Structures are given as C-alpha cells and as structure tokens.
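Let us practice reading a record.
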Amino acid sequence: MSLRYLQRTSEAPQSRADELHDLLRQLDLPDARLTSEQLERVVTTVAGRPDLFEDLIVDDGQSRWWLLLYRTPSFEVKLLTWAADQSSDWHDHGGSSGAFRVTAGSLRERRRATDGVGIESSVHAVGAVASFGTDYVHDVDFETGAPAISVHAYSPPLHGLTFYDHTPYGFVSREIVLEERRTDFSSAAPTSTTKL
C-alpha cells in the first residue's frame, strides 16, 4: 500500500469514501502525476459505479455544484452537476492535467484552438470521455439533462484556476482563483479526512 492511499480526503460519507478507496486502489495507479490514459481510467471506473455517487447529487439550478469524492496527494476525483445557463467560464487547471466523463445529460465544451486565438467545440453525451493536459483552456456548459452530471479527475489535485477573457487577440488571463476560495462557494458536505 502506498503513502498516497494512506492520506486521503473525501466529502462523501465515510462508508462511501471507503468504497471509493477500495475501488480506486484496484487501478494500481503510480505515486506520481497521472497520465491522460490513467485519468480516463479513473473517471471511467468511478462513472461505472453510479451507486457510489448518485444519491449524493444536489440538483442546484441556481449555482454550479460539485463534491470532492476522493483526493490523494497525486490525484482527485470530483462529481459535478450542470443545469441550464450554468457554465464553468474560460479557465485552465493551474498546471494540473484532467479528464471527465459524462454520466447524465450532455455538456457542451468550447476549447482554445491550437492557434491560441480560435475556438473549437464539441458536445459530450452520456458515456463520453475527454482528457486534457496542463496547457488546456476551456469553457464547459450545460447542453441537456435534468441535471447533466459528470465525473472529473485531476492530477495533481487542483490548487487554483486561471480564468480568461476571449479577445480578438487570443485568451487573456483575468483572474486566478485558489481552489480553497472556489470550494467556499460549493454546497458540498463537510470534508472528512482519513489517515490510516
């Protein structure tokens, strides 16, 4: 058993956090930054067990909602919901890589094109998986669902996001928001930390 799994945090009830712990340990992930393929395995594995998260979902039509399902020093898994008119805004992931899988509804993703100025877009329906590297800038918003639901994984865990304005000259950073500040706006349950 690695040190990474001995230091874990979850906002889920303790019994659910224990089940997530057992499930994710089976993936035999390294004690290092996870690759895109490993992050995709994490979100696919967790999304494949809706019994571990569906009853935790809060359908908040007023503000975006998320819950930290599982965090170790090298990666974290979050559950997010999306309702009409809810968007993530243009952002990066503060040097973290990530992946997400849609489990209900669909999401529209707009991302910075390779030229740094243009925009590419796609719609991710149920079962779709997307992953991204450290320099990825995107905006994700609700497409369909009541609500749309997605499972996200980041490695290393998010510390903060840079938000951007899209201008005729490309993407210009507007604000850096530390994860602790973002979490203050979440309607998530209290955090429980387990150290074995």
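A brief commentary: The CA atoms of residues 107 and 142 lie 5 Å apart.
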